[in-house]
Design brief:
Blueprint (H helix, E strand, L loop, with lengths): L1 H19 L4 H31 L1
Helix pairs in contact: 1-2
Length: 56
């Protein structure tokens, strides 16, 4: 749970820095896309893991 909260805070911090103009928009968009894809993949893998525990 701490990892999810920490990851969310990092992504929110990057978005905030982009809005303030502290970082380049291209690098921020790359990091946000990779972060969101990794989060979705991790969520799906966790869901599949839980299904295997419940039904096997």
């Amino acid at each position: 749970m701490i990892e999810v909260i920490g990851g969310g805070l990092v992504l929110i911090g990057i978005a905030y820095a982009e809005n303030k103009g502290w970082v380049d928009k291209d690098s921020v968009s790359f990091v946000l896309n990779v972060g969101m894809q990794a989060g979705i993949c991790a969520g799906l893998l966790y869901f599949i893991h839980q299904l295997s525990i419940w039904f096997l």
